[in-house]
Amino acid sequence: MASLTSLNHLNLSGIIPTDKQLQTLDDPSIYENNPALCGPPTTAKCPGDDQRPKTRSGDNVEDENENGDGFEMKWFYVSMGSGFAVGFWGVCVTLIVKNSWRHAHFRLVYDVKEWLLMVISLNVARLRRKLNLGSI
After folding, report:
1. Which residue among 26, 51, 111, 119 is least enclosed by CB atoms within 10 Å?
2. Which structural domain range is residue 118 located in?
3. Where is the composition biased (Basic and acidic residues) (predicted)?
4. Does residue 108 lie within any of the structural domains?
5. DSSP 31-64
6. Is residue 83 part of a domain?
7. SS3 79
């Protein structure tokens, strides 16, 4: 994109994006001979420009309340937080109350730790043998 200097004769159509990647392409002459292009930096207006609200930067955006995303996002975060709390405290309370489950859980954690240490030490020994390092 850095060496792109002209978009002439490419038969492009639609709204010219106003994202950060294309901010350097603001010369209207590079969009000549593409009559179906609309929006800044050209002088052609896009269909529906007058109907959509604009932000301070001039980008077209939909009203957030129009499609209900704000309400749905609030419930999404509420349910995510409550799900985390119920899951976390469900496990913690179970481990506190059930003595046999607590012992089984910590025995599993201990066994996994011992297995990981054994695998790491075997791999280190194998690597030393392959590299003929011996004991360092």
Report:
1. 51
2. 98-136
3. 47-59
4. yes
5. GTT-TEEESTTSSPPPTTTTTS-B-TT--B---H
6. no
7. helix
Query: Do the domain assignments include residue 105?
Result: yes
Separation CA 107–CA 95 (nearest Å): 13
**1-13 pLDDT, tens digit each:** 555 556 666 667 7
Q: What residues are paired with 14 via a beta bridge?
A: 37
Residue 132 lies in a domain: yes
List the structure tokens of 115.
């297995």
pLDDT at 35: 73
Q: Which amino acid is at 49?
A: D
Reading the block at residue 124, the tokens are 């280190």
pTM score of the predicted model: 0.39
Question: Per the structure block, which two tokens stand in for 42?
Answer: 């050209």
User: Which has more pLDDT, 42 or 62?
Assistant: 42
Within 22-124, strands assigned E span: 36-38
Distance between first and last Cα of the chain = 53
Residue 46 C-beta-side C-alpha neighbours within 13 Å: 17
